[in-house]
Amino acid sequence: MSRIYVWSAALGLGLTAILFLIIDLQTSWWWYWNWLFAASVVAFILYGVDKAQAKRDGTRIPNAIHHMMALIGGYPGAILGRIIFRHKSNIRNNPLYVVVLILSFLLSVAFIYWHFAN
Hints:
This protein is mainly α and 118 residues long. The longest helix has 26 residues, at 31-56. It contains four helices and no strands. The protein has one domain.
C-alpha cells in the first residue's frame, strides 16, 4: 500500500475523530449526528483539497479514501463537495462514486431506523 493511501486514510479518520470529540463534548446531540457532521466536514475538505491538487497536477487523494469517507458517514459532505467543487461529478467517468454515495446514504438510514426502532 502506498504512503499516500496510508497518510490520506490516517488524516481523514484522525481529523474526523478529533472533530467528532470536539463536537460531542460541546453538544447534547445524539452521538451519530455528531459523527455524521464531523465526517461530512472532513469529506468536504478532502474533496476541496483533491480538486485543488488536480488543478495543480499535484499529489491526489486516492478514490478509495473518498469512498471510505463517504462510507463512514461523510456522504453529505461528499455530495456537497462534488457539487460545490464540481469534482468527480461526471457520472460516466465516475459511476462508482454515485453507487458509493447511494449505498452510504442507505446504510445510514438503515442504522438510524434500527436505532429508533429498538
